Amino acid sequence: MNNNPHVAIVGASGAVGVEMIRTLERRNFPVGSLRLLASKRSAGKSLNFRGETLAIEELTPSSFEGVDIALFSAGGGISKEWGPEAVKAGAVVVDNSSAFRLDESVPLVVPEINAQDALSHQGIIANPNCTTAITLMALYPLHQAFGVERVFASTYQAVSGTGAQAIVELENQVRQLSQGEDVSSEVYPHQIAFNVLPHVDSFLPEGYTREEMKLENEGRKIMHHPSFRASVTCVRVPVYRAHSIAISAEFQQPVDLQRAQDILSRAPGLDVVDDPQQNQYPLPLLASGKDHCQVGRLRVDCALENGLCFWVAGDQLLKGAALNAVQIAELLV
Amino acid sequence: MNNNPHVAIVGASGAVGVEMIRTLERRNFPVGSLRLLASKRSAGKSLNFRGETLAIEELTPSSFEGVDIALFSAGGGISKEWGPEAVKAGAVVVDNSSAFRLDESVPLVVPEINAQDALSHQGIIANPNCTTAITLMALYPLHQAFGVERVFASTYQAVSGTGAQAIVELENQVRQLSQGEDVSSEVYPHQIAFNVLPHVDSFLPEGYTREEMKLENEGRKIMHHPSFRASVTCVRVPVYRAHSIAISAEFQQPVDLQRAQDILSRAPGLDVVDDPQQNQYPLPLLASGKDHCQVGRLRVDCALENGLCFWVAGDQLLKGAALNAVQIAELLV
User: Fold this and answer.
1) Which domains does chain A have, with CATH numbers?
2) Which of A96, A116, A211, B165 would give a disulfide with A73, using CB separation of 3.0 to 4.6 Å?
3) Selection from A288, A291, A311, A287 nearest residue A299 by Cα
4) Interface confidence (ipTM) of the complex
């Protein structure tokens, strides 16, 4: 890999794409050149990178010529169609969609957990689901110490996880309600303002959504733990940014609360925010814009023999997407 | 008990008090006379009941003279101080606070579950916690069929559960943010608009909040099930009205999904809203103002041997408070 790789961002105008640009800047990623790619609809717009204005180009068969690293965040369909093209052109693809995550030939990587997996890539490295990445930032260090068997989790997911148009929808609905107008819903099937929707991604025949099964499926692969089980309810909430997750986790070994706190306080990419008597616990509003995830409300689970109950919050556009993708790219340089 | 009992509402001007008045009207409760009681601050205001304007009176030692049923919803302190006074004056107290719920001499009643307990009262009957009542409306019928052992639950609780001043706080914060003003928080320790707070009620030494332990403590008493266990995370969300709860429940006996659906569809006070492919599931916005709770997202739990995962929503001012209290009063007449 070139020490100053030529980077392309596919889906540059999206909520995650914009964060990828900012994250490359913030982390001083040694970008040789940056190419911004998107659909025809966004082509012609421009975005700033390190003080320069870069035009967004339409994604075409020649887009990946000379590209060393292609960061994809334009949906699974685009990744499936164009990811292999980028690999053929010589790029390593870091894909934020779900298209390749469970593909056995594709590493699925959270750098703080399984960085070494990235090195065995065959052209594509997958970035995990946002909720999975944020949850595992706290769960994996506990797993290393106590051996996690299963978790019961409920999520509180921000609208920006759906994309930029969902942010606009929430803003519009709040304005419509304040002006006594009818509420219009196009992105979500129901009003999201002042409501919560137990519906993220599409439903599987078993009754869980695809999103709800990602923690188990992706968690098994990332943690190299094929018997890990996770029962999850994913819920969209009227929060603009940062996901939160309430977790009851059962472990093989007895859990010592103080040791768990110590382990989490030393875990990379994670801040322990846990002083409830002083009203200190992770909050999506405080996790927004932060690279680190936050864990708190740590307590011995009252309904499990070897269990911990805790609460995690993290910026799903950063650790749940753009930051994790750029961290993977950093492993390649 | 008088066939047309004289009723007093203590805390008549609060969010629950107002719903008690509306519920007495809607259900044609045979009110002989109605006395509205509140603190000095609210005394002098007036509210309508069956087309008549009733003045709110200040709560004094003579307030309960001639009262047959006193519905209390003015906080635990008022209940502890004035509940026994009302009993001495000859009234039966239905108390919506947590003051007496775990008192062995006080029945704790959800009429659809343990109506018979109400009949053995010694002057005070307690109304359960809102989240507990709503959760048990779905859990108890399943318990009867399959024998519940434990649940893992996360809540999505509306601000009106805190009281009328929390509704105003959310409205104000939304307006402040839309006008670019600083956000002021007085009711909650953090901004609630576009945020979620894993903090409902005060913290216990074990790390759970008092609210989080109510499902286990009150559930044991209401279901007559002393070994029932519940690990709960209670979260306040920017929803005006109606609580939602995500639940993984483990049972003694194997659970058949179709049988569970049939049982819930026949359960009193509960509507099954469960057609996810058509985007039909319980929503706080749709449960608001409804007497019935809603259950949906019913699925075999993927991390439990005999488990069900489901989602309940209910109006916490109605089934979680005023409606349940009036239903208890109905048992007395």
Assistant:
1) 6-128+321-332 (3.40.50.720), 132-315 (3.30.360.10)
2) A96
3) A311
4) 0.96
